[in-house]
Design a protein that fits this description.
Helix content: 25-40%
Distance between the termini: 46 Å
Number of helices: 13
CATH topology of the largest domain: Rossmann fold
CATH class of the largest domain: Alpha Beta
Strand order of the largest sheet: 13-12-11-14-15-19-16
Shape: elongated
Number of domains: 3
CATH superfamily of the largest domain: Vaccinia Virus protein VP39
CATH architecture of the largest domain: 3-Layer(aba) Sandwich
C-alpha cells in the first residue's frame, strides 16, 4: 500500500526553520528526498536519501509505487514557483510550506507584498520580461546563477527602465544573510550570492505608451519615412487579430516593428516573432523595441524563410510580402493554431484578390474591411483633410471556427 508523501518547505537555516512536528516526520521517514543543500541539513538521518536533481517527472513516476514513509524537502513554499504543483498533480502528497523567499524579502524590506507583480527567471529565459513588467509599481523576481541581479539590471537598462531601484535579499535566514538597496547601474556592477531574490520598486516617472502609438514616435527609414502601418490601420488590424495575454504572434514584414510592438504590449505573457528582409528597417525595429520596452524575437530573412524556427502562432499579421503571398499564406494557414486568425493588409486590389482566393483554397473564411481614412491638416487659419492610402484589411479564420475565433 502506497503512503501519502509529505512535501515539507525548509528555510536556509535548515532544521531551525522547521516546526518540531515536521522534524519528527523527517526523523521517522524511511526515504528522504531533496536537493544537495537540503539533505546536508540532516547528516544524522538514518534512512535512505535520494538526491533531487532534475528529472522531476521521472522521480514522480518512481515514487508513485513507493510504500515507505517518504518526505520530500523543498525550498520555502513548494507551491510558489516550486516543485509542489507538479508533485501534487502526479502523486498523493500533503504539502507543508515554509515562508517563501519573497515573503521574507518583503519583510526585510518593510513593505507590503500583496500588490506586487511576481515573476520568475529561475531556470527560465529572461526573454520577454521587459513587456511583462513595464508599468508595474512593484516587481518581485526569483533569480538563478545566469539570470542574477547584475544580469537583470543590465537587461532592464537596455530597455531604459531607470525608474526602478532594486532591493536584493541574499541567503535569507542563513548565517550569510545580506540585504540592501541598489540603483540598476550599481546592481549591474555587483556580485551577489547565488541564493537571492530581487524586488524592483518604481521610484521615478516612466513613459506610458497607450494603444495606438503615434507614427512619429517610431524610428523609421530615411528618406522614405512613412513606411509604417499607420496608427489607425494598426489599431483596426490589432482588433481583428483578437489577441489575448498569452498569444503567440507572427509579424511578417515587420518593417519598423509597429504592429509587433503593439502586439507584444497586449500579449505580455505570450511571445511575438517578427521577420523582415530589409536590414535598415530591422535596425529601426530594434531601436523601437528598446524605446517601447518590448522584447521580441526578430529575424533578418525574406519570408517564408525564417518562419520554420517560430512556434505555431495564435495570430499572424502580414503587412507586406515580396511576391510570395500564396506560399506564405499556405504556411500560415497550415501552422495556425485552432481558433487563430490571420490578418493581411493589402494596398492593391490585386493583392486583395490573391489573398481571398488563397484563403478560399485553404478552406478559410474571410472578411474584408476597406479603411479609407483622412487626417485633419491645418492650412493657414483653416483645416482641411488629407487622405491616407486606402487599405484592405483581410481577416481569415479556419471554417470550423466562428468569426470570433472560438470553436463552433
Amino acid at each position: 500500500m502506497t503512503q501519502t508523501i509529505k512535501v515539507i518547505g525548509i528555510g536556509d537555516d535548515g532544521q531551525a526553520s522547521l516546526l518540531p512536528l515536521y522534524r519528527q516526520w523527517i526523523e521517522e521517514a524511511e526515504l528522504l528526498v531533496g536537493g544537495e543543500r537540503h539533505l546536508a541539513f540532516f547528516p544524522e538521518f538514518r534512512g535512505e536519501t535520494r538526491l533531487l536533481k532534475g528529472g522531476l517527472t521521472a522521480l514522480a513516476e518512481e515514487l508513485r509505487t513507493e510504500t515507505r514513509r517518504t518526505v520530500i524537502l523543498a525550498s520555502g513554499d513548494p507551491l510558489f514557483y516550486g516543485i509542489g504543483s507538479l508533485l501534487a498533480k502526479k502523486l498523493d502528497v500533503h504539502i507543508y510550506p515554509h515562508l517563501s523567499s519573497i515573503q521574507l524579502a518583503f519583510a526585510k524590506m518593510g513593505d507590503a507584498w500583496q500588490d506586487a507583480f511576481f515573476a520568475s527567471v529561475h531556470g527560465r529565459s529572461i526573454k520577454g520580461l521587459a513587456q511583462r513588467i513595464d508599468g508595474k509599481e512593484k516587481v518581485a523576481l526569483l533569480t538563478d546563477e545566469q539570470n542574477n541581479p547584475a544580469a537583470i539590471a543590465r537587461y532592464l537598462l537596455d530597455f531604459g527602465m531607470n525608474e526602478y531601484d532594486a532591493f536584493v535579499a541574499e541567503n535569507l535566514g542563513g548565517a550569510d544573510e545580506r540585504t540592501g538597496w541598489y540603483t540598476l547601474a550599481d546592481m549591474a556592477e555587483q556580485t551577489f550570492s547565488p541564493l537571492n531574490v530581487v524586488i524592483l520598486k518604481k521610484q521615478r516617472p516612466a513613459p506610458v505608451w497607450p494603444l495606438g502609438i503615434r507614427d512619429e514616435e517610431f524610428s523609421q527609414r530615411k528618406p522614405d519615412k512613412g513606411l509604417i502601418t499607420k496608427r489607425e490601420v494598426r489599431i483596426l488590424s490589432l482588433a481583428q487579430l483578437e489577441l489575448h495575454a498569452k498569444s503567440i504572434v507572427w509579424d511578417i514584414g515587420t518593417c519598423t516593428g509597429s504592429v509587433a510592438i503593439e502586439a507584444a504590449r497586449i500579449a505580455r505573457d505570450g511571445e511575438v516573432y517578427a521577420v523582415e528582409k530589409n536590414a535598415d528597417d530591422l535596425n529601426n525595429c530594434r531601436q523601437n523595441m528598446a524605446k517601447f520596452r518590448t522584447d521580441l524575437t526578430v529575424v533578418h530573412a525574406r519570408a517564408p524563410e525564417g518562419l520554420e524556427q517560430f512556434p505555431d502562432p495564435d495570430a499572424v499579421f502580414i503587412g507586406g510580402s515580396g511576391g510570395e503571398l500564396r506560399e506564405l499564406l499556405h504556411i500560415c494557414c497550415t501552422r495556425l493554431r485552432a481558433g487563430g486568425r490571420i490578418v493581411v493588409n493589402a494596398a492593391t486590389i490585386e493583392t486583395l484578390y490573391e489573398a481571398t482566393q488563397s484563403f478560399a483554397e485553404e478552406g478559410f473564411e474571410t472578411s474584408v474591411t476597406l479603411a479609407q481614412l483622412s487626417r485633419s491638416k491645418p492650412i493657414l487659419n483653416l483645416t482641411r483633410f488629407e487622405a491616407l492610402n486606402p487599405i484592405y484589411i483581410i481577416t481569415a479564420w479556419a471554417k470550423q471556427t466562428e468569426k470570433g475565433g472560438g470553436p463552433v
